[in-house]
Amino acid sequence: MEPWDMETQTIKQEMGTPTRRWGIGAFVGVAISLALAGCTPVALGVAAEVAPAVVTAAPTEAAPAAGAAASPVVRSVAVPWVPPPDYLTSDEPTDAEIRAQLIATRQDLCQDMELASSIILNVGILGEFPGKIQAAAGMGITALEDELQVCSPSDDDAKSTARLINEVHQAEWLAKLHLTAMESATMERPRMRPVNADGSFAAFLTLHDVLITQMRADLVALTDGSPTLEEAQQMGVFWLEVLTAHAQAEDEALFPIARAVGDPTLIRSADVIEQEHGPIKGAIERYMQTLAAVETGQADIEELIPAAREARALTELHFGREEATVIRPLQLLLADEQFRPAVEAQDAALGPWLRAHGWHGF
Ligand SMILES: [Fe+2]
Ligand SMILES: [Fe+2]
Predict the structure, then answer these.
(1) What is the predicted pLDDT for the residue at 284?
(2) Nearest alpha-carbon partner for 206 in 354, 356, 74
(3) From ligand 1's centre to the CA of 258, what distance in Å?
(4) What gap in Å lies between CA 140 and CA 194, rounded to an integer?
(5) In a domain, 77, yes or no
(6) Among positive and negative, which fits the CA dihedral 183, 189, 194, 197?
(7) Nearest-angstrom CA–CA distance, 354 and 242
(8) Domain termination site, one of 189, 220, 249
(9) Which helix (H) or strand (E) element contains residue 221?
(10) Is the pLDDT at 230 greater than 80, yes or no?
(11) How far, in Å, from the CA of 122 to the mean position of ligand 1?
């Protein structure tokens, strides 16, 4: 047995019964059903009932630095085991094996929708959900409820294989609708992660927040159905003169500071995070090429939206990972003045812009 197989076996034994392919049920369509109920207090009461049980009460975040605002205690909740799929073992599977795979995949996708519904209920975006999921689907809630029947299947044996394939696609589309509506709702809010820092670390983290706020505002302007050339150009200025300058200042100061600590994990994280600047740059280049075509009348403004969405999504994920794997570890390892050059580099590159957009510096 390969070492990783043994490791997997151990984890399985520790975690007990797999949770994949639980019965379809309680959560499927919860968000849509609650939306249909008009998000009444009664409906929201149901949300409280289905909240997961608390397993332990132990703070998992580093304690806030002195002077930082106290944040709520983070509760540690047991994570269920999510095993990998049951892959086909034959190159020429039987029709029965293929059908079993399709049914299992449909069930997994319906379970993903349950997870999305749970998050929607728990992060306070239920109120916006009806409008957003209808916009994403291009259909009303009642029609969507009909579509949801795919997650309450019966008599699969009587269905053709083609019908099962279509049901997998249908479940995938429904899960994507939930995620799209959820992403749109969360984008309208300030970031939810606490700063939990002081001095130059707080300055760096709040700098990220300022960048994200502007990036989201520019994207909202571009995607509100009536984008102007000026709005498109403003986003171009943000990409080139603000975000790119931020990344360059990190390359010059942040990552060298992280590597200089000498910790192998931190060095690897710095390498990975620095690499992530590449795909963001690629999306920005596509945006700027399309913007040039828009400016000469060779493209419509809406054609900018895919690159803008991609650059924004990559950037937010990157910021999150950069904070989790580089900034937070440095916060535990370095004194404030040792990290300060990373912020001074940002100040030199972007200080006036950042202060004009609400950044308070050190
Ligand atoms: Fe970065
Ligand atoms: Fe960054």
Answers:
(1) 98
(2) 354
(3) 13
(4) 36
(5) no
(6) positive
(7) 9
(8) 189
(9) helix 199-222
(10) yes
(11) 29
Q: Tokens 């939206």 — which residue?
A: 305
Which of 59, 325, 327 lies closest to 206, judged by CA? Answer: 327
Q: Which two tokens stand for residue 160?
A: 């053709």
* Residues constituting the chain: 362
Q: Residue holding tokens 């749109």? A: 184
Residue among 65, 353, 14, 21 nearest 200 (CA): 65
Amino acid at 98: I
Q: Identify which of 252, 246, 254, 267 has the alpha carbon closest to the alpha carbon of residue 350.
A: 246
Ligand 2 centre and the CA of 271: distance in Å? 14
Domain range spanning residue 347? 199-356
Q: What is the model's pLDDT at position 38?
A: 43
**Which two structure tokens, joined as six digits, stand for 4?**
């990783």
With bands split at pLDDT 50, 70 and 90, how would you rate the model's confidence at 9?
Answer: low
Ligand 1 center to 274 CA (angstroms): 6
Residues 287 and 311 in one domain: yes
Ligand 1 mean position, distance from CA 315 (Å): 8
Examine the domain organization and report whether 222 and 302 are in the same domain: yes
The pLDDT confidence band at residue 20, using thresholds 50, 70 and 90, is very low
By the 10 Å C-beta count (0-12 exposed, 13-18 middle, 19+ buried), 259 is classed as: middle
Helix-, strand-, coil-residue percentages of the chain, each rounded to 5: 70, 0, 30
